[in-house]
């Protein structure tokens, strides 16, 4: 405890009043993940204002063997930014580092500090008639550092890839307090291992991202947002291929929504209604975009593709949003599924992916299997069909009590879903990461060779285990390696 | 030697006659890089036929502590696939593993073994009306394994990225003989560190790539290949921006050729002539492509863009190739620069990159500086302006003798060029990799933090130094770290 006192005094001295706090009221909100599933304790919260301060603070932590939990907007889905209950770690908030350091229109590049909020980045790009091609529900709180560290996905991955695809350069503080600076983007650079790739998606376990250079694209000309009613997920898969063939690069997103989820949203949201008449087993939400200056053809293209799809019998009904307000309304339906499904009652949620071409088969096969094996449950899949990534929720039998069910049958269901997705060659975490919520499952189901490599890399870059302990990398005893 | 004999006997036993040879005549061509700059020795050459054979052979080598030099088409530029002179290593050719395991048209994915030759991959894709969007001069010998291991570039990077961007999944044998299999491509997969990214570009020092799943794109509709005469590299830079703004995704490549290089090619190639009339200080070679089914507009687009450029005064003359034969002729001029410049006399060649926006300034500033500092030399820059990557050759003063000049003044020139490019925040190896040719320079000029991380990762994944020793990763004593 003497040692802790010394550390705390040095931290306060180093970072000043704004930079280090033990004030319970200030820290409290950041000790729990936003979903309220994980709660931890911390010695204090550091909020450095510069990369140099992060580096100095990390060296201080290293000297005192104080583990660090880096945190951005605290809007992660896997508890990756929540400290454990020991109270021996320190929270490291990057939120104060929220400066856009530079934006180069010609090059289409922006250098942001880790604390820049996604929504602010979107606005900064729009002001310059550019856009940052990644978005997700938590854009009002998610930060660049968190997005990079979790290799975030979202609804534009089909066309533009995950966060990894947007990162041109990184700045990160390593476990020994050294600063890796690869911010200057070089389109071609073969000077050895691409170290930024090791850090992207490593959830703060290998280094602390302090800034990133990201690519920006020209603003779009126009978008057409389409809502479709269909008979089956197989038809949605056919429609996806149909759009990929005929719309090519204009296809920006392709999401699927089952009848159950749409009904839940309509119950949940005031004024919400289905964009299409009648009942359909499945719905698809499709977005097409055109380049700036090429606005005329997009509506005609959308109508042509939909007309052909109707002739092929792979959709029942389709509506193209008449204006931006309606387009936003369509997307609001999609974005409200998760909260609407949660409002119904307890459910186990799985963020899974398989090959794009096999996702429809997978859902069609495993949904009835699960409902049969666990009577009274209801399996609901929705989301990013175009990425082979659905959010697969299994709703508890009616009358189940949340916490209790989740820890008994719920747990069994999740293991079963993860077993199945692994058998199908898929991923138990498509976009939400591992954090603390899936570390044991990764240890149980991960490829032993991959797990061994991950442990070796973790050991090499953070030999004293100071960076985000208890996250992502399964311990050897959790693994299936002998 | 007893031990070596035992190893050789076991290797022969394991791989059979086709799989392991000590026949000098067979091995000889593979002991020298194709440019003839490096020559090594080897205990023998293994040519396993399957991933399982590679894995078993690696375990055999590990047991006997025999270092392995993996080799594909032996067309690398940096000696990365040539063994050292000790004769204690074994060559591991992946050329026999040349099967295309699967090709999925709908998904746009092909799984190739490491030994598949790039040209064969192009042809397999074309047969299915798809294309693999990476090409380079050595396509007739370069293999998929080598392309992945060196993160190869080429002339389509501007639009499609380097090899890293094409790799959806990998299979690799690690130093302990375990097999990492990430071949099944998942568009979204956040199960921890992206291990394939660590292997891409690691030049066989961390693992041996045995297969890769690569992305394929739809075939193009049409291409327009344009040759332009200009007054300056700054005008070429302006023209690049002009094309990027107006042609967007249709812009596939943008190469620059100085008058000196064009003259060298015309001297070197029978029947070659300049596509444009008159004398111009610089030339640009530009390729536009259209999607299949959208062929009509491309010619009009090219003419419109060139017309506006002429009005802006950023070009003197331009010719659009009238047909495919002429288009090929234009590209032949570009691809003949390296051999034509070599035919003139000794030169130091530098494969360098800086930010795309600074490349013209860089060349304009350093070329006269070098010619002044080393009287009689001539600096020539050509290549991928659109990627911020030029091949920067410094020709010896006339009368210099190749080998002698290269080892005295030539060496001094290269150090100086590398110093300058490092000062400008650029890369001393844009696309050719480090291999053995630039390892010392990387140790001298590399960021100490990056070098330390590279050494840690190398140590973690290949603790006994069995994989491609002496390549890429600078030894600690070569580094600038204390």
UniProtKB/TrEMBL annotation, chains A, B:
InterPro entries: FAD-bd_oxidored_4_C (IPR004113), FAD-bd_PCMH (IPR016166), FAD-bd_PCMH-like_sf (IPR036318), FAD-bd_PCMH_sub1 (IPR016167), FAD-bd_PCMH_sub2 (IPR016169), FAD-linked_Oxase-like_C (IPR016164), FAD-oxidored/transferase_4 (IPR051264), Oxid_FAD_bind_N (IPR006094). GO terms for molecular function: catalytic activity; FAD binding. It comes from the Bacteria. PANTHER family: BLL6224 PROTEIN, D-2-HYDROXYGLUTARATE DEHYDROGENASE, MITOCHONDRIAL. The keyword Chaperone does not apply. Its cofactor is FAD. Belongs to the FAD-binding oxidoreductase/transferase type 4 family. The keyword Flavoprotein applies. Residues 38-219 form the FAD-binding PCMH-type domain. GO terms for biological process: respiratory electron transport chain. Keywords: FAD, Flavoprotein. This is FAD-binding protein. It comes from Qipengyuania vulgaris.
